[in-house]
């Protein structure tokens, strides 16, 4: 599944167009590298998002096309960075 669609389906970003713009601006990285919206997401990938003043890092647990809103959080697990 494309990165922009995964971000929308998992509800990490509200709309696919916003996810696409975030990728174009370099605000999204996968496994430590800047990623384009067309990147094919796989289980085990680590996605980092810069959302305003904070950065969120998640690990992809599952890739599914359609998920209920209540189950969207099951597609990934948030990784807490130790500082």
Give an overview of the whole structure.
- By secondary structure, this protein is of the alpha+beta class.
- It has 2 helices and 5 strands; from the N terminus they run ααβββββ.
- It has helices at 3-9, 16-24; strands spanning 28-30, 33-34, 46-51, 54-60, 76-79.
- A 5-stranded antiparallel beta sheet has the order 2-1-3-4-5.
- β1 (28-30) and β2 form a beta hairpin.
- The radius of gyration is 12 Å and the shape is globular.
- It starts with a helix and ends with a strand.
Order of helices and strands: HHEEEEE
* Unreliable residue stretches: none
Number of strands: 5
The largest sheet is: 5 strands, antiparallel
| Ends apart, CA distance between termini | 32 Å
Shape: globular
Helical residue percent band? 10-25%
Mean pLDDT comes to: 93
SS content category: alpha+beta
CA gyration radius, whole angstroms: 12 Å
Strand order of the largest sheet: 2-1-3-4-5
Question: How many DSSP helices?
Answer: 2
Strand content: 25-35%
Which descriptors apply to this entry?
single chain, 83 residues, alpha+beta, five-stranded antiparallel β-sheet, 2 helices, 19% helix
